[in-house]
Design a protein that fits this description.
It is built from 16 helices and 21 strands. It is an alpha/beta fold.
């Protein structure tokens, strides 16, 4: 099935590209890292203080070396992913969230136990296929130590490809070391680092260190922009697309200077600033327009694309949450997304996570995957089924129905299709069912097998990086 979403015409794509070249060649980007500035200078870029100017030939060369797709290994070989056109998108949980909405509707700061529960939900998910070592933050009394602990437990408790940490050289190197130790794979990408620009038109030192370390180690980087139109990006939606394009291409060029061929995922989570609240509005329709436009630019450059997610500005599991999340997830799926962070669980923009919304977002994703699969192959026995149905006066008892209805029909894990009276007699809400599913998944979780030698190697890496004894691998209970 093919659904095409376009925010930019072919001429407007060229306009964005040309505007990007003009900005990067005349104004450039602020690069807040002496080593990165030296790298640009050594490769012939014009550098004036912290400002780097980019020529078209330099950008073209970097785009030529960045692959259009790549494989991503895992400690479970059966869960290896391919990132790029024609592949199912990588779907990842909420990320960097500081608060949680509990079953009683109250909000509180996240805890490390919450983080372990998120890993259990990730491993048992029917749709998520990557784990995230930065799902919650801070989730520990020592926020810096928490990041090291989260990488360890994510690799111990899940067997999927990993989203790693990128906050500086030490943590980036540790993340790559741990992913390689867990998987035993040293000659292919096993981890993706999320590296965000500093809008407007800048890159800070820690994110540049993340790009450098991941690139030097042959790992993949998602280079993204998260700006607010009217605040850290132009008020014009097209201006936000141009600025995102400038910042992403600047990070991409740096990755290719460090190591040509580094896999790069072009990304954005840019939206608009709500002028009444002065906050980032991720449920705004402009968020979808910016994401679709950036997806077209990624396709224009033949790069995998990161965008979208079940994002909403709602604070509760209400109509607003469903409306905004479903809209954003639909746009994400059919704009050609290849890598989707924030797929499930998000409330209050990036500020809160809720486990009941987590499983309901999975339901939306399951429906979208079914739609994306399309009608399937033409049924060879369709003429026979039509004839038999006419003779029988219906199709319910036909062999073709009994044999095929389970694979032809999507069966929701959450949702009520019965009549009103049956619904009222049952006396339960969809939210009640969602929390039952959450509790069942948490209880059913079992830590996937991991080689003892890999676990020992991870423990040594943790101790060397933190100066502390390695944690005990847990099943999250």
């Amino acid at each position: 099935m093919r659904v095409t979403l376009e925010a930019l015409s072919a001429g407007e794509i060229q306009n964005v590209h040309q505007a990007t070249l003009d900005v990067l060649s005349r104004k450039g980007l602020s690069v807040m890292s002496a080593p990165a500035l030296e790298t640009f200078r050594r490769h012939g870029f014009a550098v004036d203080g912290q400002r780097v100017l980019f020529g078209q030939a330099q950008i073209d060369k970097a785009l030529e070396s960045a692959p259009g797709s790549f494989g991503l290994a895992s400690r479970n070989p059966e869960r290896r992913l391919a990132i790029g056109p024609g592949e199912r998108p990588a779907l990842i949980s909420a990320s960097g969230v500081p608060k949680i909405i509990a079953e009683d509707g109250g909000q509180r700061p996240v805890s490390f136990d919450d983080y372990l529960d998120m890993l259990r939900l990730t491993q048992t998910s029917p749709v998520l296929n990557m784990s995230n070592s930065g799902a919650l933050y801070p989730a520990h009394g020592n926020p810096d130590l928490a990041l090291y602990l989260q990488v360890f437990h994510t690799l111990a408790m899940t067997d999927m490809p990993l989203v790693g940490q990128t906050e500086g050289e030490a943590l980036s190197g540790y993340s790559v070391d741990m992913a390689q130790a867990a998987s035993g794979v040293l000659d292919a990408p096993v981890i993706v680092g999320i590296c965000n620009s500093l809008s407007p038109l800048a890159w800070d030192a820690r994110m540049l260190e993340g790009i450098r370390v991941y690139a030097e180690r042959g790992q993949a980087v998602n280079i993204s922009c998260c700006s607010m139109s009217g605040a850290t990006a132009p008020v014009y939606v097209t201006g936000a697309i141009v600025q995102a394009n400038c910042e992403v291409l600047g990070g991409l060029v740096y990755s290719q200077l460090v190591r040509p061929g580094t896999p790069v995922i072009y990304g954005t989570t840019s939206s608009v600033m709500d002028m009444a609240t002065m906050g980032l509005a991720l449920g705004a329709p402009e968020y979808g327009l910016i994401s679709v436009g950036c997806s077209q630019m990624a396709a224009f450059y033949r790069l995998p694309f990161r965008g979208g997610g079940g994002l909403t500005d709602a604070k509760d599991l209400d109509f607003q949450a469903g409306m905004e999340s479903a809209t954003n997830l639909f746009l994400s799926f059919f704009e050609g997304v290849h890598f989707m962070l924030q797929s499930v669980g998000i409330l209050e923009s990036f500020m809160s996570v809720a486990f009941d919304k987590w499983v309901l977002d999975e339901e939306i994703l399951g429906r979208l995957q079914r739609i994306r699969e399309g009608l399937g192959p033409w049924p060879a026995d369709l003429p026979e089924a039509l004839a038999q149905g006419q003779e029988a006066g219906g199709y319910l008892r036909l062999k073709s129905t009994l044999r095929n209805f389970r694979k032809e029909f999507y069966r929701p894990a959450l949702g009520d299709r019965r009549n009103f009276e049956a619904f009222r007699q049952r006396g339960r809400s969809l939210r009640d069912d969602a929390w039952d599913m959450v509790r069942g998944r948490l209880a059913a979780y079992r830590r996937p097998a991991i080689e003892p030698s890999a676990l020992e190697a991870m423990g040594r890496i943790f101790a060397r990086a933190t100066g502390q004894a390695p944690p005990e691998a847990t099943d999250g209970r």
